[in-house]
Amino acid sequence: MKITMKHVAAAALAICATQLMAQEVVKIGHVGPVSGAIAHLGKDNENAAVLAVEELNAKGIKIGGKAVKFELLAEDDAGDPKQGTAAAQKLVDSKVNGVVGHLNSGTSIPASKIYSDAGIPQISPSATNPKFTRNGYKTTFRVVADDVHLGGTLGRYAVKDLKGKAIAVIDDRTAYGQGVAEEFEKAVKAAGGKLVGHEFTNDKASDFMAILTTLKAKKPDVVFFGGMDAVAGPMMRQMKSLGINAKFMGGDGICTGELAKLAGDAMADGQVVCAEAGGVEGQQKKGMEEFYAKYKKRFNLDVQVYAPYVYDAVNVMVDAMVRAKSSDPAKYLPELAKTSGYKGVTGTIAFDAKGDIKNGALTLYTYKGGKRDAIAVVR
Asked: Where is the signal peptide (predicted)?
């Protein structure tokens, strides 16, 4: 029989098909708000998950000696708890091997029960409310410090470093915003600071004139906001219009690349002090800088805030699968819990008995020339 190029091509296709059939497909779910007011943050997270999966597939990772192909199943929760639980159930029904997400505490907490009931590991890259890891679920992990650390550090900083004499608080009543505001208040009081008011809004609001007018009468020199950048920016604009010349503080929800655009000319250099739940020092900075450059090259976008933590979460999950020699959630979950020295772009990752990151760092930032400028890394 004469062998032609057609025969060679057919044989090659047959070999490829056999190899693909031999590959195990490992499904990793990702959930974040890719619609709504903080879609820029949700897309930032999703992009990082895409990047991690692309790199893992390019490396030809093997689990238990078998070639695997990683597949990302991305869902949108719009930052809404109901949509978040629906997205979680969809991923469970799709038999994902693990989930990275959700972005918000308010969606991560109710979703965690669904993943726990299904025995599917969940790593949040950004949920900071302490309750997230306090329900006793063995499947729940996070790679950032919680609000006790974040809000507490900012509260002490407001009193001791900013020398705040009259400190006001606003929160958006979400699990994240309320949680970080409460921890901030506790720390202010413990440091001997004076709280002059606590007002409330919601994460969809755009008019803050009433609550700001109430606070203006109390002459605050520091205003802390528990919430996200999409609300913080317009709030700062309205503070300026009312002549409230106070330092503006917040947690990682406002500590984004987008805040300067949202606040516009209402943001003066050094006016904002915020904290990101994570931080690298010394030699670790090189790894983070390389990630930022890689992300920019792949998506032609700058990192907003949480992308490096998503990237690390995906890789930590896969590392546990490799160590367990299985992508079966029941088999690799114990290895994930034992993670104690994974070197990620955000630093060394180790989990405690609750699933919290051990020795979690915070980075304090201000803004200069519309860009984030690091003040210090705090542990």
From this structure: 1-22
